[in-house]
């Protein structure tokens, strides 16, 4: 304290240049200290900025008290310190990141090497980061530096090393957007592999195909969808919107045991509407790993999501009150509650983590399934011969019609899965490469060495359409998954819409179940052309890439088969 006081009183007397010089040296020293630190400084950005603000204000007050200068002069004096500090800090950071950083050998745009805000700019420019990333890869090659310590990789050999079951990489800081304590966040936010594995067991128990449990509920929601399509038969319908209504209602039912009522009302539930409105800025700020932590710590910053979080919390409280431990759970959240009741090691350890998991059920399962359904219907409409083939196969497998559809009969029509897989290849709903951090010793991918503590990612959207691994990469060819598998070399194609290894999608089986039922029901009952004036071009080429894919409207007409 005494030394700060002395320093400040000297500052008050010294001339401007001296203050700037001294503070710049402090800025450089500070940067060197954090660059050499063994912890991730970005995790502590909020405490650092809070401390800096407190110091700044204290400095002003001390200056006023000690040097008896006016408040304006004190603010000026204190600001000089921070200006000098920032100049020193940023200059040191710039030199380090451009010339000395462990990622310096990877090519990329100059600004990207210096700051991650470049990626925010690319994201914000036209909301199509995946296209910008594709252009950058074309220009700089397969190993592209997209941030100071971020490397985007277009190499199939990288996938098992980064994401596979035996990977030594861990989830990057990006995942810790909701907090650093693994016991207080949802499963998606856990970076520690051991803790993740434990928690994942409760999810796998609740989601591993409870076919007989969930099928009737998915089917009940699908019946509502069919009825609504029937009510609007022959009229243009925006399938991007209706697929969203459907999948949120399914996830509300299967996830909570409480369907939202989107389909019944024909309107998006207000809580989901508010959440969707805010997902875009959220996706943008997530680009900077430390930014969400900072924003999250500001009271009211997540207000846009509060309505959705409120619905989840209320539902969770109701479920907790009504929970009957002697009965087998009938929805995903009830399975998570059962783990708590049984004091299982996989149980969500705190109220906060359980609340996060409850939100996660809806967030992880709804948009992803909805986008896949809309995209599959778009592709089937664009390729009516594939639509007709699916219809014929369904009629052959279930001649009595959709009402007689059951899991076994549906599963036999493998062409549905071919369509789903091909849709997920062309349009994976999670567009951007998921960042994982390399271990301290780094990783070796062929002849490329990537040093430790680098955030690496493989962008699925790009690699799944790369002609080095996929024949006719932009064609919609469901047959490549079965009868043309050999001919098209499908087995060698990198395909990661659900991720790999321990972090792979926990809800994959539920997603297939829902998509199989929805596609069967729709295609067996309706012929689907584009609505008059709709070409699907805007829908196809202009989806927004944020946290998830955000689709443009797509107008289709559903003509009942019997009257067609
Ligand atoms: C076509 C539909 C789906 C796709 C393409 C998809 C994709 C993914 C991907 C890529 C991940 C890894 C995320 C990461 O590492 O950051 C993931 C994780 C997960 N998904 Fe899905 N998902 C789908 C449907 C579902 C459904 C229906 C549920 C049901 C609740 C679900 C629940 C989860 C959960 C719990 C995780 C684990 C979170 C984590 O470990 O980070 N997903 N999904």
Automatic annotation (TrEMBL):
Pfam families: p450 (PF00067)
Keyword Protease: no
Example GO molecular function: oxidoreductase activity, acting on paired donors, with incorporation or reduction of molecular oxygen
InterPro entries: Cyt_P450 (IPR001128), Cyt_P450_E_grp-I (IPR002401), Cyt_P450_sf (IPR036396), Cytochrome_P450_monoxygenase (IPR050121)
Residues binding heme, per UniProt: 505
Keyword set includes Nucleotide-binding: no
Cofactor: heme
Domain of life: Eukaryota
Transmembrane segments: 20-39, 45-66, 78-99
The entry's keywords: Heme, Iron, Membrane, Metal-binding, Transmembrane, Transmembrane helix
Protein name: Cytochrome P450 67
Species whose genome carries this gene: Cucurbitaria berberidis CBS 394.84
């Amino acid at each position: 304290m005494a030394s700060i006081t002395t320093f400040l009183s000297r500052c008050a007397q010294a001339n401007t240049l001296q203050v700037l010089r001294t503070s710049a040296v402090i800025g450089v020293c500070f940067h060197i200290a954090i660059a050499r630190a063994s912890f991730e400084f970005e995790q502590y950005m909020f405490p650092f900025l809070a401390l800096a603000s407190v110091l700044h204000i204290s400095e002003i007050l001390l200056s006023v008290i000690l040097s008896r200068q006016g408040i304006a002069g004190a603010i000026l004096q204190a600001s000089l310190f921070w200006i000098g500090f920032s100049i020193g800090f940023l200059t040191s950071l710039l030199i380090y990141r451009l010339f000395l950083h462990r990622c310096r050998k990877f090519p990329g745009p100059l600004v990207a090497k210096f700051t991650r805000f470049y990626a925010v700019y690319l994201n914000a420019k036209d909301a199509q980061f995946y296209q910008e990333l594709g252009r950058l890869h074309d220009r700089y090659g397969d190993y592209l530096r997209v941030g100071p310590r971020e490397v985007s990789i277009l190499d199939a050999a990288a996938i098992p090393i980064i994401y596979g079951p035996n990977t030594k990489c861990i989830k990057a800081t990006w995942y810790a957007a909701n907090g650093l304590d693994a016991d207080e966040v949802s499963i998606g936010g856990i970076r520690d592999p051991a803790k993740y594995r434990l928690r994942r067991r409760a999810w796998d128990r609740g989601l591993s195909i409870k076919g007989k449990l969930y099928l009737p509920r998915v089917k009940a929601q699908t019946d509502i969808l069919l009825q609504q399509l029937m009510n609007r038969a022959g009229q243009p319908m925006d399938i991007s919107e209706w697929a969203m209504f459907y999948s949120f209602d399914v996830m509300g039912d299967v996830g909570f045991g409480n369907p939202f009522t989107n389909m019944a009302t024909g309107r998006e539930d207000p809580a989901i509407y508010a959440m969707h409105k805010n997902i875009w800025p959220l996706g943008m700020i997530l680009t900077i790993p430390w930014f969400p932590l900072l924003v999250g710590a500001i009271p009211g910053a997540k207000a846009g999501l509060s309505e959705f979080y409120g619905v989840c919390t209320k539902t969770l409280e109701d479920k907790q009150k009504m929970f009957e431990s002697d009965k087998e759970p009938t929805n995903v959240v009830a399975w998570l509650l059962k783990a708590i009741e049984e004091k299982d090691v996989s149980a969500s350890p705190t109220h906060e983590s359980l609340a996060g998991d409850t939100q996660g059920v809806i967030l992880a399962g709804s948009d992803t399934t909805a986008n896949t359904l809309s995209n599959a219907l778009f592709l089937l409409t664009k390729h009516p011969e594939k639509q007709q083939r699916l219809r014929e196969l369904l009629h052959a497998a279930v001649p009595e019609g959709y009402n007689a559809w059951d899991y076994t009969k549906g599963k036999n029509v493998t062409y549905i899965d071919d369509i789903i897989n091909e849709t997920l290849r062309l349009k994976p709903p999670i567009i951007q490469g998921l960042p994982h951090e390399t271990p301290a010793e780094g990783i070796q991918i062929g002849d490329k060495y990537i040093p430790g503590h680098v955030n690496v990612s493989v962008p699925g959207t790009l690699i799944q359409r790369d002609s080095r691994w996929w024949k006719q990469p932009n064609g919609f060819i469901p047959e490549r998954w079965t009868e043309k598998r050999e001919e098209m070399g499908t087995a060698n194609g990198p395909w990661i819409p659900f991720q790999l290894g321990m972090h792979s999608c926990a809800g994959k089986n539920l997603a297939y179940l829902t998509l199989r039922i929805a596609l069967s029901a729709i295609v067996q009952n309706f012929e689907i052309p584009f609505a008059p004036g709709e070409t699907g071009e805007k829908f196809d080429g202009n989806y927004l890439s944020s946290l998830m894919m955000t689709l443009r409207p797509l107008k289709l007409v559903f003509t009942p088969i019997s009257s067609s």
